[in-house]
Amino acid sequence: MTAPIHVRSEIGKLKTVLLKRPGEEIENFTPEMMERLLFDDIPFLPEAQKEHDAFADILRDNGAEVLYLENLSAEAIDAGNVKDAFLEEILTESGYAAGTTHDALKEYLMSMSTLDMVDKIMSGVRKNEIDFVPSDLVSAAEDREYPFFMDPMPNLYFTRDPAASIGDGLTINRMTFDARHRESLFMETIIKYHPRFADKGLHVWRDRYHTTRLEGGDELVLSDHVLAIGVSQRTSADAIQDVARSLFDPANDSEYDTIIAIEIPHNHAMMHLDTVFTMINHDQFTVHPGILGEGGKIDTWTMHPANNEDGFTIEHNQDLEGVLKKELGLSELDLIPTGDGDPIIAGREQWNDGSNTLAIAPGVVVTYNRNYVSNELLRKHGLKVIDTLSSELSRGRGGPRCMSMPLVREDL
Ligand SMILES: NC(=[NH2+])NCCC[C@H](N)C(=O)O
């Protein structure tokens, strides 16, 4: 059997991928909660599910095995016999380490089948669904009107972010905003207890117990020894240093000796590197023109292992094309601008994840159908573009790359 996680590029043929089918969590909130939950609108659930099923079908039809986060989580909890411990952890991270509300929530969730419990935790627990009136100070003094005991986790269908495969291992991420903090606990549980992953010698290059922030949308596996990581709204430079130290440590036996840190604007529309830059073929990339300054400049820092105190060297550069050519050993490079360079179209299509392409083989990409200008341009550049439905899914501000966590890709 091949390793349960094996990803040495962004473009190798996709063999196994982790998705999360959108559930009640994507509609279980009010407009007042949207901003905090990192959504710009409230999707229509049945349509979102249809769109997501169509996306999964495309991946399956092209030879990928599709696994679902909700199922793996429940299977892992059962296999490890850790329902109690899992609940304690998620309750603690939801603000209930002890007390009567903790006890009531625990009793309620414990009474469910493991899969129902997982679905419930993901979709949120409202106050009116438990026969219990909290008497603690928080409920009395702070939370009187708030309708939830446990918030929904609508961003779970962006499986890309809570963890990221690198080589034969992964990072399990400490995420930036409260709205997403708890998400990576599912992946940690899967890696620890699911028979498919547990005790298989997987490297966890960096775990979720850090104060510095890292999200998978910023982590791009450019080759079997080069990563690109965004310095972004969601990923801090100090977290990238951690990743470098871990991957460059000879004791950890990783193949990675190069990290290109790329600084992008810190805002909601471009929250991760993969919303503005993706690799789609050996020598082709999408790039949102909005991240490039005058003369196409952008700040990058290339890190290599070194025998100094930091454990690495850094080299500053502003020529992304030159840096990519050098580190990937390419003589030519095709950087394809989102929206064909038209400022209105580029802005619009980037907002709807026009740069967020998922390569499922070299030169074969899945994109949102609504970004028709960028899609057409990709076709003109020789790519095979499979476009997928996107009216509802795009309201969560993530595209095909965000919605997928590759676990196994064929080597190039
Ligand atoms: N890899 C990505 N670009 N993911 C997009 C995540 C979108 C999500 N609403 C968030 O703000 O976190």
UniProtKB/TrEMBL annotation:
Subcellular location(s) per record: Cytoplasm
Give the InterPro entries listed for this entry.
Answer: Arg_deiminase
The GO annotation for biological process reads: L-arginine deiminase pathway
Is Cytoplasm one of the keywords? yes
What EC number is given for this enzyme?
3.5.3.6
Q: Which reaction does it catalyse?
A: L-arginine + H2O = L-citrulline + NH4(+)
Q: Name one GO cellular component term.
A: cytoplasm
Alphabetic keyword roster = Arginine metabolism, Cytoplasm, Hydrolase
- First-level EC class: hydrolase
| Known pathway | Amino-acid degradation; L-arginine degradation via ADI pathway; carbamoyl phosphate from L-arginine: step 1/2
Q: Which residues form the active site?
A: C402
Molecular function terms in GO for this entry? Answer: arginine deiminase activity
Q: Which spans of this chain does the record mark as coiled coil?
A: none
Task: Quote the HAMAP family the UniProt record gives.
Answer: Arg_deiminase
Q: Hey, which family's this protein in?
A: Belongs to the arginine deiminase family.
Q: What is this protein called?
A: Arginine deiminase
The organism of origin for this protein: Lentilactobacillus senioris DSM 24302 = JCM 17472
